[in-house]
Amino acid sequence: xxxxxxxxxxxxxxxxxxxxxxxxxxxxxxxxxxxxxxxxxxxxxxxxxxxxxxxxxxxxxxxxxxxxxxxxxxxxxxxxxxxxxxxxxxxxxxxxxxxxxxxxxxxxxxxxxxxxxxxxxxxxxxxxxxxxxxxxxxxxxxxxxxxxxxxxxxxxxxxxxxxxxxxxxxxxxxxxxxxxxxxxxxxxxxxxxxxxxxxxxxxxxxxxxxxxxxxxxxxxxxxxxxxxxxxxxxxxxxxxxxxxxxxxxxxxxxxxxxxxxxxxxxxxxxxxxxxxxxxxxxxxxxxxxxxxxxxxxxxxxxxxxxxxxxxxxxxxxxxxxxxxxxxxxxxx
Length: 332
Ligand SMILES: NC(=O)c1ccc[n+]([C@@H]2O[C@H](COP(=O)([O-])OP(=O)(O)OC[C@H]3O[C@@H](n4cnc5c(N)ncnc54)[C@H](OP(=O)(O)O)[C@@H]3O)[C@@H](O)[C@H]2O)c1
What we know:
The protein is α/β, with parallel strands linked by helices. It has 10 helices and 15 strands.
């Protein structure tokens, strides 16, 4: 089978490998599409923890079951499935060993034609989605679901603020709207602001034209502040997120787009009784709940562009450029 390998930092090679054989409790899946996440860019750069080259990158893929190994009963050939990113995290709280079971960094990734995975490491694909669309669910979708419906519950009438037009932000927008929430969004250009409005954002602010988006969000929420910030920037945006959230509001800390450590105005957090929750993807129960909600609401992820496997390096560079809107997909 053909597979993408990272042989060293930012060094991509499409190689030919033997087809995997499903072992006990495993199924063999023929992937049709994979979607990239910012984490894959970090893996390719060599900056993601617990990864060593050479490796097959990628955690998010969708395809069809081809064969079942001994004792595997959950799926049958022909079933359409997508990946569970943290393979060992089935339900409940995350435990210290779960991050060691993440696809495409610690475990071999899915930017290849076939994988043999544990039958519990897959989720059924919503029937209305193409495989290119379904590949967009696992990481960004589950993470947004966890933020909105994990520890906290998003209620109709809540105001949710999303940052940018990347995979997590657009899933948060779609899911918050499906839950009856109002969405405020910030982005880097008028063209992207137009896309956000078309997807259902009620108000959009260009943070390049005016960096003081916290003041804008306060005004746009009647001075009270928003109920929930989907925080993907990290240290460069957290202070404004704290300023923009309401008393007793929630900030879901998800991303590292501006760095992995920095100053946090801690006193402002407790003075407002803000709940700051870290989110790291989610268990299979959440990916399953996400897939059910996507089917029920006929949601479709935003696919920015589809690259062939031979142009995987360009796909990674495109995601890293930040010029995309939604998900960058690779056909397999
Ligand atoms: N914790 C987890 O489990 C988890 C899961 C998935 C992703 N993540 C992290 O979450 C972050 C987003 O991931 P993603 O896959 O959605 O990334 P992505 O698709 O690459 O999205 C990046 C987008 O974020 C926006 N952005 C960049 N800097 C910004 C800033 N300073 N303020 C506001 N918006 C900014 C830009 O959109 P505009 O041009 O529209 O502003 C950019 O295109 C990454 O750091 C990723 O590692 C974490």
